[in-house]
Amino acid sequence: MYAIVTTGGKQYKVAKGDIFDVEKLDAQPGDKVKLDVLMLNDGKKTVVDAATLAKKKVTCEVLDQFKGEKVLVFKLKKRKRYHRTKGHRQNLTKLQVTSMPTTRTAAKSASTEEAAE
């Protein structure tokens, strides 16, 4: 079972217990963070209905705040004697997935919405 979640303008494929790095979030280590779900899959059934998944969240625990590896940016204009080297280290947050919604609960809420219409 896995889910596609979004944070920081990027999408991540996660499963329960996974540890992954995302763009920096305003949270301290030990805090719980809820991420928006774009898709749920349990191996047999896939749920992609935006209205159903709007209520579903993946809960993650913040493990660490850290800086990523250094990325070097080198600028050069040949024959002009111009060259610059700069470095950048992105602030990141390490998350661990603690709980995920199931496709059954997502499917039940979708079927009750269809029945109500």
Automatic annotation (TrEMBL):
One of the record's GO cellular component terms: cytoplasm
| Coiled-coil region(s) | none
Q: Name one GO biological process term.
A: translation
- Biased amino acid composition, Low complexity: 102-117
The Swiss-Prot or TrEMBL record describes its family as follows: Belongs to the bacterial ribosomal protein bL21 family.
> What does the record note on quaternary structure?
Part of the 50S ribosomal subunit. Contacts protein L20.
Any idea what this protein is called?
Answer: Large ribosomal subunit protein bL21
Gene transcribed to yield this protein: rplU
